[in-house]
Amino acid sequence: MSGDIIYDTNFYARLEAEVNGFRKALTKRWRQETAIACWQNDTVKTAFHRYQAPYGEDLWDYCDPINRLHLVYGPCEVVEWAKSDQQGGMPSCPGRINSQQQTSGLLLTTDRYGNEVIAPSEIDCGMDSIMQSVEYWAYCEGSEVLAKLPKFDRHDQRAIEDAQQAILAIGAALGLQSSAGFVPASNADLINKIDKLVGASGQNGLWYQAWTGLAADALKDGFFASIAPTLFNTAGIAGSIHNLYSARGTIIQEMRSGSLKILSDASKALDETRVVTTDLNPVWQTFQGMGTALSIAGGWVPVAGAVGASVQLIGIMGQNFAPKIKHTVYAHDVEAVITALWGHLDEQANDLFSRENDYNNGIHSLHDTVFEIHSFNLELYDLTENTATGSGSQEGFHVEVDTVLEFADTCFECAEFYEQRLIPKIGDVQAADASLATKDGSEGPADPKVKALVVEYSEYLKTACGRLYAAGEQIKAAAQAYAATDADAKAAFDATMADWDEPPAPSEALDWAQDTDRTGWQVHIPGAPSYVNDTTPGGDDQDGQQYETEATR
């Protein structure tokens, strides 16, 4: 993934540090503008977004005529310090009044009530208290900004990436390819075995000459016919789940990097010493077209060969999304900077809402698609109710027992591959569960559905695994039944069994082989009449028709 991804799992501390930098820059500029306003007898801005008491604050009265003599003629050392680079600590001002209007050491002026009085040579300067108030105001403004920013604090992007790699490893083993240049890990082990059961050497292969009759017909048109669509769909689902993890990861990245960039740009603008307008370039990387990209969920397309699906994979930071460049223009007086800052914060909040909505729509699109796939095309044909020999006629068949046993052996090997190398990877995917969360670490509407689909997906793998074991057992039993009818068949059976190294199916295999319970999800078309919405899993899958439950008819 991109080296620009923020992997920090204590991001709030980094965000708070950036806000502190903003507070520091805001304090400096606000002091400067406040000092100038006091010197010029203008109104002092005391807040932008921070909460204020109803009656304002009790500030030193810089408008008092005698105090103004100090500010105008002093000079006031605090004002001079604030107007310059503010190096070192804030000075202690003695409050001197030095004026050419003084005669005989006396300066006549009027007090706040209009009475003519003799001005003192010094006053109790309160500009230091105003500067301290500015620091408080800036701190409070920073707190308002911090509260507005999306936190995404402990979300672990590495865990999300690891989950993506795990789900891709499953998909690759099932034949997943990507139009985005993704190169899957070696899937030769499983695919080569599957090719014995389907495709050139399986469903339409020469084996059909070595095993004919009703039992072979049922296997060919039932179990063998279900293998290619099962791998096709489960590979495609794996790629789409990967994309959902990318969606969550990209939302996290976009909001984190966006927050830092917004604050950094504002701090830089506040720290400018010249009043200019500066184009500060991209504020945050956006995630345009996320809904469109996630709508490919379920839209996987066949690739050359008997099995496998091709999915356009997207990565964290939204590869394959059309980027939208945003530009920030700041005028460098404090109010203009704060106004622009909050405009961007509001825009970021709107973007986050849209991204979360797209993410939610993405999981709905994928889950609706999965819901409409029949078990036959998702987790293999159900052999659990079949008998090994069937209930029909045993006449008119030809069988080479060693070929039949080779199929049984291949089914066992494929089942073991599922059990040992695919199903355990679901745990690696679920290790990122804590990071599938919204900005405050809670589960939004989409994240629980993504996690639930991962659990459901693991059940598809277990069901397929159990049915492969069941197929191996039944095909082996069928070979044994054939061997009982013919001496040559028995000899072939005994010779193969002498070197048979496949252990029996695990005890839980028959439980795994049951249909996955999908009653927790119902496809719903908003506004459609009740009879339009089919609540039966696989109900809209035209290729998912039921087959005979007996091996012969």
Describe the model:
With 553 residues, the chain is mostly helical. The protein folds into two domains: 11-148, no CATH class; 157-532, no CATH class. Helices cover 50% and strands 5% of the residues. The chain has helices at 11-40, 65-73, 77-83, 127-148, 157-173, 188-197, 207-210, 214-221, 223-270, 290-294, 334-371, 401-422, 425-430, 447-483, 487-498, 509-512, and strands at residues 108-110, 116-118, 211-212, 277-282, 301-302, 309-310, 327-331, 398-399. A two-stranded antiparallel sheet has the order 1-2. Strands 3-8 form a two-stranded antiparallel sheet. A two-stranded antiparallel ribbon has the order 4-7. Strand 5 (301-302) and strand 6 form a beta hairpin. Helix 9 (223-270) runs antiparallel to helix 11 (334-371). 44% of the residues are buried.
